[in-house]
Amino acid sequence: MSHELTQRVISVMAASQHLPPDTITIDSTFQELNIDSLDGINILFALENEFDINIPDEGAKEIRTVRDMVEGVRRLVEAKATAADSTPAKV
Amino acid sequence: MQRRVAVTGLGVISALGVTVDQFWEALSHGRSGIGPIQSVALNALRFSNGAEALGFDSGSYFDAKEASFLDRFAQYGVVAARHAIADAGITFENGRGENTAVITGSCLGGKATEDEGYRQLYRDNNTRFNPLTIPRAMSNAAASRISLEFGITGPGYTVSTACSSSNHALGQAFWLVRNGSVDAAITGGSEALFTPGLLRAWEAMRVVSPDTCRPFSKNRRGLILGDGGAMMVLESLDEARARGARIYGEICGFGMSSDAFHLTQPSAEGAGRAMRAALKDAGVAPESIGYINAHGTGTTANDSTETAAIRSVFGAHADNLLVSSTKSMHGHTLGAAGAIEAAATLLALHNGIVPPTANFEEADPECDLDIVPNVARAAEVECAMSNSFAFGGLNAVVIFRRV
């Protein structure tokens, strides 16, 4: 799990929740951070904008920790990169 | 002295049709009106199904000039009111108009009208707005037109409390007739929400189901948006009997509460308080209630919370209740929900048949009530309750009695 990606996810979460970034670690749970369902959809919205990805509803409902969130974003960012690589160049 | 209040006319426009007969035919057969959204190009939206009032042809009810004054939401309300008034056989001559109220509910007002204006402004840089934008978009547009069309000159207003709007409207109208402030009322609600901007806003809330609406089912995945409107005619029961009117039932209780808890999460305590308040207002014991038309949105949070609230209010009697969510068939019509579900509840009392919760697949231990899965049930019920709980935590519950 790249450190850079983790830090980007944490900084987006911190900005979205108006929390100091150093209060959030990879091991923080949403419960510890006092993030409820409405906060959760705000964070997903901010992450979708930051990484230009679409986070599906179903997987998103299971996310309970920062680690889950980073892992989910990593998979979507990688999938996007793969899809871009396999797209034929325009002629 | 308090008067008893009868419902003598109904009109319903929904995904299930444009007449009360079509509405009841679908409900009593558990037939859902949910299908692929047709009126809006979806463009990679996370959901693709809705419960649109596709049978509503504006041109059948309004000439081109009339239609230009009315957003679709207002047209639904006005046509539902025309049907209800004709159904009741009531007129507003000889002073009746002065003593009649028009009280409607709408969460959104004319959102499609606004959305179109903003599209032209922001995308096309067209700064000339349709001059009818303001009167088309006002949330009271249906109430105003009903009053104007029928010469009803008593109290008129519109309540906006998100998904509780039309139950709040019904309750206000009921109290005005009950306490003698007016002799009759036209009340209900309407909503038209299939417009690109609003569908995007709902998508971002992540509460709309990607397939269908399965209230109380363990595999439920969210609500399905619907549009339409319902209106009813309320009169004093004595006057309705005196003129030989057909009576669908009586509104006998109304209760409200506020959760003071969370912007969007439901509260069993708040919902329970509204149900208790309605029972107290009706002066009936919980055991008199045989059927509850649930708020039953099909979201994970609502259905289990509503079950807990019903259990807390009704205790052991909860196991005797029939509880169904007709949103499984007409969708969640937001500010029209209370009115459409009131019509469903009254027709259930009147016909002795409880409509089912359609699309049910899998029992959920957290929703362990008799939710009348998929097939309507014959049941002679004395009293029935209809629940509406809103985002923002404002709850409104109405109780009806068979007459």
Task: Name its key features.
heterodimer, A: about 90 residues, mainly alpha, 4 helices, about 0% strand, globular, B: about 400 residues, alpha/beta, ten-stranded mixed β-sheet, two-stranded antiparallel sheet, 14 strands
* Number of E strands of chain B: 14
Estimated helix fraction of chain A? 55-70%
- The number of distinct helices of chain A, counting runs of at least 4 residues, comes to 4
**N-C termini distance of chain A:** 36 Å
- Taken as a percent bin, the fraction of beta residues of chain B is 15-25%
Poorly predicted ranges of chain A: none
Termini separation of chain B comes to: 20 Å
Shape of chain A: globular
Strand content of chain A: under 5%
Topology, number of strands of chain A: 0
**H/E element sequence of chain B:** EHEEHHHEHHHEHEHEHEHEHEHHEEEE
Which structural class should the secondary elements of chain B be placed in? Answer: alpha/beta
Q: Give a quick account of the main beta sheet of chain B: strands, pairing sense, barrel closure.
A: 10 strands, mixed
Biggest interface and residues each? A-B, 11 and 13 residues
- Work out the helicity level of chain B: 25-40%
**Biggest sheet character of chain A:** none
Structural class of chain A: mainly alpha
Radius of gyration of chain A: 14 Å
Q: Would you tell me the overall average pLDDT of chain B?
A: 97
Could you please describe the fold and organization of this structure?
The complex is a heterodimer of chains A (91) and B (403). Chain A is mainly α and 91 residues long. Helices cover 62% and strands 0% of the residues of chain A. Chain A contains four helices and no strands. In chain A, helix 1 crosses helix 2 (37-51) and helix 1 (3-17) packs across helix 4. In chain A, 15% of the residues are buried. The model of chain A has no long low-confidence stretch (mean pLDDT 90). Chain B is an alpha/beta fold. Chain B is 35% helix and 19% strand. Chain B has helices at 20-28, 58-61, 64-68, 72-88, 111-122, 133-137, 141-150, 165-178, 196-205, 237-242, 268-282, 300-314, 327-330, 337-351; strands at 5-13, 35-36, 49-50, 100-105, 156-159, 184-191, 228-236, 249-258, 289-293, 322-324, 353-354, 377-378, 383-389, 394-401. In chain B, the strands form three sheets. Chain B has a ten-stranded mixed β-sheet with strand order 5-4-6-7-1-8-14-13-9-10, sandwiched between helices. Chain B has a two-stranded antiparallel sheet with strand order 2-3. In chain B, a hairpin with a 4-residue loop joins strand 13 (383-389) and strand 14. Chain B is globular. The model of chain B has no long low-confidence stretch (mean pLDDT 97). The chains are: A mainly alpha (91), B alpha/beta (403). The A-B interface holds A 36-38, 41, 44-45, 56-58, 60-61 and B 46, 204-206, 210, 221-222, 262-265, 300-301.
